[in-house]
Design the sequence.
């Protein structure tokens, strides 16, 4: 079994205490690689490497930083298929989906490689003739990035690309379930000539220990995190002790709204795509509640259920598979418990509703794509983030009602609506309390626009021009001119 070292200060190194842990394929339950299991000394070494590298990297011209980011993008493009295979092995998603992820993920280096040159300041008109007012944007310093397992490439590049473009250095702690992809990205940065210490990867199954080191170090000026709202709150509380900057993308409870004037074929495909075809529903932006206008429910629901029944589930390398396993048994049990709870409260099972354990699926953590009907708003399956291939379907009467019901959650990350009425589209898009609104579109965000959540779904924005400024301090300079 292959052993993977972590990447600190431009060197590939084992854990200082010699510990290792296994990376497990969720399609088989078998280990596929062994990885260095870092402790506190390794994390401190990574922080020190980033601190040492920060001033020279910040002093590198934005144009040159952009050139290096474009070289990283090119290095990742050369390794696309290899990295996609790593994603399948450690994450379980189908190979075609993994290839799409890495193709999208590497695009962040292209976007922020261009944006590096556009951290514009301002020359502000002064109210005093003898003074000039300048506003500058300068890099924050060392960034601690903590990323999840569901998008092991995209969640990494969406954080490190803007940080590097801004002139910051990074210590990354990838999810213990999916460290192999992060290490492959580190290999690409090394091949592209990124200076040692600018990007460091600390792999560990002791996530809390590594987070404590990042939070307690005065050298780390910002924590960038994607994960659960509960963990985000705990990190924020500890970051407040040093008033560290934080940027969080947290949990979601996305509504998917189908109005009576929608293109039903497009709505069915959109609902299936965003519910089941993104890591089998293990995505913060996937549809969590599907609202169908009552007047078209009898037409939409059978089409939707038929389409879900046709989805092929299996190991990611099997041709034709579109839904892979859940990440582990704990996740599968949680998903099934939500389904069982809904059924016990009066929901009706249209399809699915059970673990898949036959044949090639016996060793992995597979769950049947599921549709629940006659669901009530107060059921946990509608209140909690499901994080699995289960779609609760609800009906509504009118526009005002569905906006109120869609917003009745502590979350506010992503939402979707299907309609052909421009007035309705405008009113509903403006009324939804979510950071992302997809209108007749369920593909999600792009590199060019900011992404983040309202309410308890997060703080800050990633992507777009806003993504660069998240890693910069704003400085005002007042110049009193010498008088003649």
Sequence:
């Amino acid at each position: 079994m292959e052993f993977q070292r972590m990447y600190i200060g431009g060197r590939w190194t084992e854990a200082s205490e010699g510990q290792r842990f296994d990376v497990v394929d969720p399609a088989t339950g078998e280990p596929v690689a062994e990885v260095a299991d870092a402790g506190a000394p390794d994390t401190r070494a990574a922080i020190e490497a980033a601190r040492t590298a920060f001033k020279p990297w910040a002093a590198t011209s934005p144009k040159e930083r952009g050139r290096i980011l474009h070289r990283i993008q090119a290095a990742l493009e050369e390794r696309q298929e290899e990295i996609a295979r790593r994603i399948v092995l450690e994450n379980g998603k189908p190979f075609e989906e993994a290839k799409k992820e890495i193709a999208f993920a590497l695009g962040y280096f292209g976007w922020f490689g261009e944006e590096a040159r556009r951290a514009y300041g301002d020359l502000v008109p002064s109210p005093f003739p003898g003074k000039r007012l300048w506003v500058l944007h300068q890099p924050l310093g060392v960034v601690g990035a903590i990323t999840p397992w569901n998008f092991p490439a995209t969640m990494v590049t969406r954080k490190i690309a803007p940080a590097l473009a801004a002139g910051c250095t990074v210590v990354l702690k990838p999810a213990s379930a999916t460290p192999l992809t992060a290490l492959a990205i580190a290999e690409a940065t090394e091949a592209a000539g990124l200076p040692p210490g600018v990007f460091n990867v600390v792999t560990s199954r002791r996530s809390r220990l590594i987070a404590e080191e990042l939070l307690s170090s005065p050298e780390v000026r910002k924590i960038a995190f994607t994960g659960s709202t509960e963990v985000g709150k705990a990190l924020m509380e500890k970051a407040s002790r040093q008033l560290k900057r934080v940027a969080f993308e947290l949990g979601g409870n996305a509504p998917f709204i189908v109005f009576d004037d929608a293109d039903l074929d497009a709505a069915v495909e959109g609902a299936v795509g965003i519910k089941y075809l993104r890591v089998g529903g293990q995505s913060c932006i996937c549809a969590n509640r599907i609202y169908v206008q009552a007047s078209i429910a009898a037409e939409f629901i059978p089409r939707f259920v038929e389409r879900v029944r046709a989805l092929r589930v299996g190991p990611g390398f099997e041709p034709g598979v579109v839904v892979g396993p859940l990440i582990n048994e704990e996740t599968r049990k949680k998903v099934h418990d939500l389904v069982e709870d809904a059924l016990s409260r009066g929901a009706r099972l249209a399809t699915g509703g059970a673990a898949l354990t036959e044949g090639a699926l016996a060793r992995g953590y597979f769950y049947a794509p599921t549709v629940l009907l006659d669901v009530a708003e107060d059921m946990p399956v509608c209140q909690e983030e499901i994080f699995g291939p289960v779609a609760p379907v609800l009906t509504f009467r009118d526009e005002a009602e569905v906006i109120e019901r869609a917003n009745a959650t502590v979350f506010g990350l992503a939402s979707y609506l299907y309609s052909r009425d421009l007035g309705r589209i405008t009113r509903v898009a403006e009324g939804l309390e979510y950071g992302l609104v997809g209108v007749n579109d369920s593909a999600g965000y792009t590199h060019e626009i900011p992404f983040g959540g309202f309410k308890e779904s997060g703080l800050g924005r990633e992507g777009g021009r806003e993504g660069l400024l998240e890693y910069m301090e704003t400085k005002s300079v007042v110049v009193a001119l010498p008088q003649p």
